[in-house]
TrEMBL record, chains A, B:
<dbReference type="GO" id="GO:0051287">
    <property type="term" value="F:NAD binding"/>
</dbReference>
<protein>
    <submittedName>
        <fullName>3-hydroxyisobutyrate dehydrogenase</fullName>
    </submittedName>
</protein>
<dbReference type="InterPro" id="IPR008927">
    <property type="entry name" value="6-PGluconate_DH-like_C_sf"/>
</dbReference>
<feature type="domain" description="3-hydroxyisobutyrate dehydrogenase-like NAD-binding">
    <location>
        <begin position="164"/>
        <end position="284"/>
    </location>
</feature>
<dbReference type="GO" id="GO:0016616">
    <property type="term" value="F:oxidoreductase activity, acting on the CH-OH group of donors, NAD or NADP as acceptor"/>
</dbReference>
<keyword id="KW-0520">NAD</keyword>
<dbReference type="Pfam" id="PF14833">
    <property type="entry name" value="NAD_binding_11"/>
</dbReference>
<feature type="domain" description="6-phosphogluconate dehydrogenase NADP-binding">
    <location>
        <begin position="2"/>
        <end position="161"/>
    </location>
</feature>
<dbReference type="InterPro" id="IPR006115">
    <property type="entry name" value="6PGDH_NADP-bd"/>
</dbReference>
<dbReference type="InterPro" id="IPR036291">
    <property type="entry name" value="NAD(P)-bd_dom_sf"/>
</dbReference>
<dbReference type="InterPro" id="IPR002204">
    <property type="entry name" value="3-OH-isobutyrate_DH-rel_CS"/>
</dbReference>
<dbReference type="InterPro" id="IPR015815">
    <property type="entry name" value="HIBADH-related"/>
</dbReference>
<dbReference type="GO" id="GO:0016054">
    <property type="term" value="P:organic acid catabolic process"/>
</dbReference>
<dbReference type="Pfam" id="PF03446">
    <property type="entry name" value="NAD_binding_2"/>
</dbReference>
<dbReference type="InterPro" id="IPR029154">
    <property type="entry name" value="HIBADH-like_NADP-bd"/>
</dbReference>
<keyword id="KW-0560">Oxidoreductase</keyword>
<feature type="active site">
    <location>
        <position position="170"/>
    </location>
</feature>
Length: 293, 293
């Protein structure tokens, strides 16, 4: 099976490499050449344009940072849908709105091809280890056809339901990730200000009902080391929280904690914290508290 | 060692029984007689007043719902401090403010007795199994003397620091519990409204970065069963969030998510949801969303 992979970023590159290692004839494509070279150095194929990938591959996977990037790659004049060969299966692993998924799904149907939304969770560590959680929306028979492809990249692979369902599950996941991130910021800022030992606090909290996988990620590798190299950038989490807000509005669900965190993260990005790892929300918390003192 | 235990509630009764089972000569005391009878039926001693406990025991533990209850039992005319024999060690396992702990610590010193703040985490399950997390503030040599007593009730026992430190750690724990509780409410409300299968969503989230011990508690045993018998009552979590707000104000720390959740929980209690388990915040979420639809 020939697989194209568009978007060789922090997530996409290790995902594409895992496809290559699993024996799929994998073609990588990225806006910047540097990432393509890295992929080629480790045995991946490069050199095909987006239209060529659409015309020659059996499956094309996209893994892109922003919804606008996804729209461009799919619906642009030189995009995937314009050149897609009959029977092509398109899989979008980006985090976008269920609405955009449903729109691409409908356009793909019209073009005689298939589309799945298949956003992932698990970060760069999960992408490298091939242990991502993958949440899939679309037609189940299409999902079954590409299951081996997904299994090369992830471990907990769930067919969630109709088009957009994968993204709905992913956005709900991100809502919790965002809220839990801010919970960590507030908890450790309070601990620091009161004068507790943060390592001791972490040991207490991770063994109690305060435990979250986000705290287990953010504290030891980022906050304790005062090092906020992403990982997953704060600006991407902020983008996701904005997508959740749109989904919640359509679903008529009040996001109390979600809204307060979303507003804060948007301010953090505006204040220049967006390129930090998402755990850097703690650094923003400390800076804001400092102003108050 | 003779141990008095004041407050045989959902948490206190199993804790006192574990002391009895561990071989301590344990005397239970509760405002309502029914709980004392339960304790006596399982072999515990009863019948001593608060002053008698203060005069005759080596250690007296308190585990009470509200800060005002704690203040009354310690500083009232018939309270512990008025009748305390020299060398008595007082341990408060209630969740109160670090400020109240420090005040009782100072009064205890004046009366020639010792005081530790030792709030617990782990819920009724942890109390019954004797696996509570216990966070202790006060003098370390006093902590060392009563460590066997604490070990009969808990597993992760940490000496955190000077008087009030145990409560500071506990309140930070509760801040996260409160925020995580609301994260669960918003996530599952969104899932329900979008039309996802909640059991499937739980399986995805608990295996991804959305996981929290609070979600692992709230979903399977409460939300999935639509049963909100406490457990830990929403009004108590609300009380704790109010205590955290006071601590944060003193520490000059901005609680963004914490404040939004605190306000919501106070409204939930005012609207009659306080006696539900804390996971019942989800039921309140659904009721509020319904109004908007």
């Amino acid at each position: 099976m020939k697989v194209g992979f568009i978007g060789l970023g922090n997530m996409g590159l290790p995902m594409a490499l895992n496809l290559h290692k699993a024996g799929f004839e994998t073609y990588g494509k990225n806006r910047s050449e540097g990432k393509e070279k890295k992929f080629a150095e480790q045995g991946g194929n490069i050199g095909l344009s987006i239209s060529e990938l659409a015309a020659q591959m059996d499956v094309v996977i996209t893994c892109l940072p922003m919804p606008a990037d996804v729209e461009g790659v799919y619906t642009g004049a030189d995009g995937l849908l314009a050149s897609a060969k009959k029977g092509l299966i398109l899989i979008d692993c980006s985090t976008v709105s269920p609405g955009l998924n449903q729109q691409l799904f409908a356009q793909a149907e019209q073009a005689g091809v298939s589309f799945l939304d298949a956003p992932v969770s698990g970060g760069t560590t999960g992408a490298e280890a091939g242990t991502l959680s993958i949440m899939v929306g679309g037609k189940e028979e299409v999902f079954n056809k590409v299951k081996p492809v997904l299994e090369a990249m992830g471990k907990n692979i769930t067919f969630v339901g109709p088009s957009g369902s994968g993204s709905a599950a992913k956005l709900i996941n991100q809502l919790m990730v965002g809220i839990h991130t801010q919970a960590v910021s507030e908890a450790y800022a309070l601990s620091k200000s009161f004068g507790l030992d943060s390592d001791m606090l972490f040991n207490i909290l991770t063994n109690s009902f305060a435990q979250s996988r986000i705290m287990d990620r953010h504290y030891p590798d980022f906050i304790a080391k005062e090092s906020y190299e992403p990982g997953f950038a704060l600006k991407l989490l902020t983008k996701d929280m904005n997508l959740v807000a749109g989904m919640a509005e359509e679903c008529k669900v009040n996001l109390t904690a979600g809204s307060s965190v979303r507003e804060l993260l948007n301010r953090a990005v505006a204040d220049g914290y967006g390129d930090l790892d998402m755990s850097g929300a703690y650094k923003y918390q400390l800076a804001n508290d400092e102003k108050q003192k």
